[in-house]
Amino acid sequence: MLEKIQETAAFLKAKMQTHPETAIILGTGLGSLVHEITDKYEISYKDIPNFPLSTVEGHSGKLIFGKLGGKDILAMQGRFHFYEGYSMQQVTFPVRVMRELGIKTLFVSNAAGGMNPDFEIGDLMIITDHINLFPEHPLRGKNIDYGPRFPDMSEAYSKELIAKALEIAKERGIKVQQGVYVGTQGPTFETPAEYKMFHILGGDAVGMSTVPEVIVANHCGIKVFGVSVITDLGVEGKIVEVSHEEVQKAADAAQPRMTTIMRELINRA
């Protein structure tokens, strides 16, 4: 595994013209951020040794390098999901490569179903913590010496970055929620009973990504900031049939607000 990570990092270093310390996983809700990246150059996943390929509609597959908020950044356009059939090692492989490339801070976004009765469709939820319900752990197996065998997760999402994001949202008049993200394997959306259970467990929103990458980022010593777009509601009395297209539509509507927060946060991080 370590040999493959280092091989991929060496390939990318040979092609990189910049030295980013900030990375963004452009999940649902952050697609438009691509248009704000200047001086950019791209590398397709299919051209990168050992990289999986994204198969989900709405997820492109390339690494984008450039500037955002005056800083060099690396953006992943298209992430990998456990439900696509990838192993956890494949899902989180890019994060380990990021560590080899010198990334210090990771920004992630996702679409999620809201279980908090105070949430509405289109809300942005700053992730304060998560509950991992994936059936396989991304650190299972031989420990890679990027971090300890038993990593601390008491601050999986940087409190400093959360505080800055809240300040930006207040300055810009953007409504944000805060809450706990529940990570499940998917690919089915949740049943009403599952929504209820996840809320009882302490979750405010549920989705099918993010948690594995965040765990590995923490193991690698990378600071994390995460945001969910609430694209459907799992609140009793508000649950309706949902489709991927509707999720995408709700996420697209939230993009300008999420982009503003992320751009400013990168500028101030």
From TrEMBL:
<dbReference type="GO" id="GO:0004731">
    <property type="term" value="F:purine-nucleoside phosphorylase activity"/>
</dbReference>
<keyword id="KW-0597">Phosphoprotein</keyword>
<comment type="subunit">
    <text>Homotrimer.</text>
</comment>
<dbReference type="GO" id="GO:0005737">
    <property type="term" value="C:cytoplasm"/>
</dbReference>
<protein>
    <recommendedName>
        <fullName>Purine nucleoside phosphorylase</fullName>
        <ecNumber>2.4.2.1</ecNumber>
    </recommendedName>
</protein>
<dbReference type="InterPro" id="IPR011268">
    <property type="entry name" value="Purine_phosphorylase"/>
</dbReference>
<keyword id="KW-0328">Glycosyltransferase</keyword>
<keyword id="KW-0808">Transferase</keyword>
<dbReference type="InterPro" id="IPR035994">
    <property type="entry name" value="Nucleoside_phosphorylase_sf"/>
</dbReference>
<dbReference type="GO" id="GO:0009116">
    <property type="term" value="P:nucleoside metabolic process"/>
</dbReference>
<dbReference type="InterPro" id="IPR011270">
    <property type="entry name" value="Pur_Nuc_Pase_Ino/Guo-sp"/>
</dbReference>
<comment type="similarity">
    <text>Belongs to the PNP/MTAP phosphorylase family.</text>
</comment>
<feature type="domain" description="Nucleoside phosphorylase">
    <location>
        <begin position="23"/>
        <end position="266"/>
    </location>
</feature>
<dbReference type="InterPro" id="IPR000845">
    <property type="entry name" value="Nucleoside_phosphorylase_d"/>
</dbReference>
<dbReference type="InterPro" id="IPR018099">
    <property type="entry name" value="Purine_phosphorylase-2_CS"/>
</dbReference>
<comment type="pathway">
    <text>Purine metabolism; purine nucleoside salvage.</text>
</comment>
<dbReference type="Pfam" id="PF01048">
    <property type="entry name" value="PNP_UDP_1"/>
</dbReference>
<comment type="function">
    <text>The purine nucleoside phosphorylases catalyze the phosphorolytic breakdown of the N-glycosidic bond in the beta-(deoxy)ribonucleoside molecules, with the formation of the corresponding free purine bases and pentose-1-phosphate.</text>
</comment>
